[in-house]
Amino acid sequence: MKTIDDLDVAGKRVFVRADLNVPLNGSTITDDGRIRAVAPTIAALLERGARVVVASHLGRPKGEPDPQYSLAPVAVRLGELLGKPVAFATDTVGDSAKATVAALGDGEVTLLENLRFNAGETSKDDAERGAFADELAALADLYVGDGFGAVHRKHASVFDLPARLPHAAGLLIEKELGVLKRLTEDVARPYVVVLGGSKVSDKVGVIDNLLGKADRILIGGGMMFTFIAAQGHGVGSSLLQEDQIPVVQEYLARAKELGVEFVIPVDTAVSGSFPDVKTQAPVDDYAVVEADAIPAGALGLDIGPKTAQLFAEKLADARTVFWNGPMGVFEHPAFADGTRAVAQALLDSNAFTVVGGGDSAAAVRTLGFDETKFGHISTGGGASLEYLEGKTLPGIAALED
Ligand SMILES: Nc1ncnc2c1ncn2[C@@H]1O[C@H](COP(=O)(O)OP(=O)(O)OP(=O)(O)O)[C@@H](O)[C@H]1O
Ligand SMILES: O=C(O)[C@H](O)COP(=O)(O)O
């Protein structure tokens, strides 16, 4: 895989595919970790006289402009971090993008509007994706892939565009792969994997492969309810991936045969409705219930205190830990305790600890932990999980030839 040192970038338009999918509260960025993570690549290219065109997705808009997912606030923050203005294009491949890119001088940078405002970006149709990649390719001479958090997506800017331009990996992707490789080689055991978060349908499948690798798998976050249901219990109105229940039952049976320990929550913190994370209004019907007695209508929003204690015990003797996905809706203080407890348990262990994922990394930082105390904070959750599974990642494969 070529790196930016292999490219002659001076005076050239360099397209940098970043993952600037940061958490927002309105237009306020609540954690800028992903912007800081890619800034060194952009700065290095600018220093070498490149005309840098940065692009990213943000959230999951439906293939058309949607102001709540605008990257405009990110352009401002990127400019602060780089110490120079970032011209913002109000579209991705339209008149604004073309004009902004054409106006770039050497050592100047622009950020395009959200790639996913265009249906071609995420299309499953090769021709539609290809047509959008052609439009993106017209904006640049060279391509640098550095959006590690999105390399598991077969999307136009991640997969199709690098095939159209001379390309290289950015500094962030180089660094991420360097560290994650350690978890695919000789891992120190016990190797404990902690899974949570809300992208349940995306991530249940990775367990298939982890069963052959991890010694212990701890399940929290939105993921836990499919496991609780697989044990035959009701989950009220909690996040449930009903079609995955038989799959999870098969995992539980296979884990027994393989001697892999699944640790499933014994209690959960619930409310009758999703908390208001914007206003942080107090939750007046907060309750902790046993995992096998979740009342109808209740929404499980965090692991309970007994589970937090149990997870801490299961992490205490770990020598390697990979954690993706918050244990609860940590964005509201009423449901942040489980995530806080797991982060603390990682620090209390003597393990090599890797925390992966946009929200997982944001959780660690916004809950006040010192990120330098962890072995590695990865910008990719789904991406690092799929890498650890040994899957071919479209955004890495595309950079490899
Ligand atoms: N019980 C739950 N019900 C609903 N949402 C939950 C629950 N527990 C956690 N979450 C939410 O999960 C979200 C994060 O999940 P996600 O799978 O996106 O993790 P991530 O670390 O960002 O990984 P990735 O980088 O793959 O997106 C948080 O916004 C959190 O509020
Ligand atoms: O947060 C992430 O995991 C990446 O930015 C990818 O986002 P996606 O799951 O919406 O493709």
TrEMBL record:
GO terms (BP aspect): gluconeogenesis; glycolytic process
Keywords annotated in UniProt: ATP-binding, Cytoplasm, Glycolysis, Kinase, Nucleotide-binding, Transferase
Keyword Magnesium: no
GO CC term (a single one): cytosol
Top-level taxonomic group: Bacteria
Entry GO MF terms: ADP binding; ATP binding; phosphoglycerate kinase activity
Binding site residues for ATP: 203, 300, 331, 357-360
Localization of this protein: Cytoplasm
Top EC class, one word: transferase
This protein's record includes keyword Kinase: yes
UniProt pathway annotation: Carbohydrate degradation; glycolysis; pyruvate from D-glyceraldehyde 3-phosphate: step 2/5
Enzyme Commission designation: 2.7.2.3
Pfam family, one: PGK
SUPFAM superfamilies the UniProt entry points to: Phosphoglycerate kinase
UniProt binding sites for (2R)-3-phosphoglycerate: 34, 116, 153
Catalytic activity: (2R)-3-phosphoglycerate + ATP = (2R)-3-phospho-glyceroyl phosphate + ADP
Annotated residues for binding of substrate: 19-21, 34, 57-60, 116, 153
Protein family membership: Belongs to the phosphoglycerate kinase family.
Subunit structure: Monomer.
Protein name stated in the entry: Phosphoglycerate kinase
Gene source species: Kitasatospora viridis
